[in-house]
Amino acid sequence: MSILVSADTQILIQGITGREAATFAQESIAYGAKVVAGVTPGKGGTRAGPVPVFDTVAQAQAQFRLDASVISVPAPFVKDAALEALAHGIRLVVIITERVPRHDVVFILEEAAQTGARVIGPNSLGLIVPGETRVGMCGGSASAARRAYTRGRVAVLSRSGGMTTEIASLLTMAGLGQSVAVSLGGDPIIGSTYLDLLPLLEADPQTDALVLFAEPGGVMEEQLAEHLMQCPTRLRVAAFVAGRFAERMQGVRFGHAGSIVEGTRGSPQRKIERLTAAGVRVAQKLSEIPQLLSVDS
Amino acid sequence: MRLLEFEAKQLLSDVGIEVPREALVSSPAEAEAYARGLGVPVVVKAQVPAGGRMKAGGVLFASTPADAASAARTLLGATIRGYPVEQVAVQERIEAATAVYLAATLDAAARRAVVLASLEGGIEIETSASVIRQVFSLRQPYPPFRARELASRLLSGQAVPLAPLAQIIQAVVGWFQAHSALLVEVNPLLLTREGRWVAVDAHIELDEDAAFRQRDLVARFGLAGRGERRRTLLEQRAAEIDGADHRGVAGRVVEFDGDLALLIGGGGASLTIFDAVLDAGGKPANYCELGGNPSVWKVAELTKLLLSKPGVTRLAVIMNVVNNTRVDLVARGVIKGILETGRDPSHVIAVFRIPGSWEEEGMKILRRYGVRAFGRELSLNEAAERANEGGVT
Question: pTM for the whole thing?
């Protein structure tokens, strides 16, 4: 047991007959995940590999307990698919699709707040509890995922899908396994931020440390830093903030409303300063992360 | 996608919000004629898709038609905030005592839709402390009572009727919701001496990812491709290569002044790898992001493209531990691309580091050409250091 999911988590994949989804469904099963059903409207009654496909979530739910859904449908249909999952009480919704209209994302998150469900993404690879289950496509093929991710006590929260696996692999090579790794999603508005997941990790007896991968823009890092200033965490926290060069190479300007809402928002340098002030060990180089987690450093 | 001021105001006018009398012109003579027809002092405003036009000298006041002509002469052909001015709007000047700032937008931190309003409308609104912020739900139409509540808070203590302002708030938020917009901003919204509200300036930002719902707007204003930075020849060619084959994604291509070409993982990985290369003292000539599972052809074409830049002698291929990219296909593509330029892969490849599926096959291919490939045993930082060590692999 880690956070959010366990080896018993029964997974639905909405859009399972798509090329990408069909592949990660098969590989997830090979990894040990319980992918029990898929939904593609119009393809009900068929199978995607070993997985039965239904027209609606309601039909799938009549046959299976569904704990989590992975949404991998074209962007215009994401909102409806997510609302369908939420309407049927699914507690964890992972949105893989990118370029989802931002109004749709806010709509989905408002609805999820009503039903008490958690959303990861959009533009996320999903999450993985090494050796137990995977919801989404972290790590690619089952064998590649087994190689990069190993069971252990470090949680990884990353705004970049690709870097989720890179960091897990870096930790694995240093002998540090992971309790969970979550690809939070690369969009400006996402269902779960570092701060949203922090309380779960703090309550998780399997987790001792946390690695964050941050990117420029937004205020997720600043929000977390502010929280950590008020409420120190028992977890050892290390972070890497990518994109310091972007600061030097392109002038980013924000309109009135953006400035009012977010203030002087997130340049990498500012994120590094805030996180450091909050007691987070910020790596200058990505490869320093394992040593920053060691107790004596 | 940012609309021009003139376009934004047309759209607000369509939903019943009064805007100044104005015309879009592209010559001083037209500006003069229109100002003469109006018979009142005017403002001449550069129509460029950027904020801060006033500070950048893109907004000029003219008391006479001759002044309007000279203002237009100054602006047309000038560059404001990096955009050449092709058209200016000549609009009647509105005198007013009250200037309101009004906007509907998404608050990314709160992950909610909000209306922002202030009685201190004008150009310095970012620093104003008096902004009222009202959260509203996107799951239902914005209720009229919320507009009245906001209007009454904004106008509290003022002898100004509530209903006209509430109607404008309703219209602005309604438009924002109906078009999945990122921002609809009226600044300033002026109250004239006769008691009419006039939207003097407006800014609408559409969500490119919701453009499929806005085909009418895209067609009406010719929005396709607007707001994109003008592409360099290198970027154009990369986009062509990307478009010719759906497998894999060639992302951003950017050019610099160095001698090292970079073919690197996309998104967060590209930021990390680029930082690592700079940290290690590297001098990039250009970079191309690679993602998904690209074909050999695509990788070969991108490799040739990066190497075609004069002065480029070496290529570093660095990716994160990949989730679905096949290492052997990238290896084949890189070798093919280099051979087709008539060069020796073992001289050109400064470092090749991609851990992931089909890694061993990829290494075998590279070894055949005298190139040592690396997997995860070489960190991204070490790969970046190797890339800068002079091309000996």
Answer: 0.92
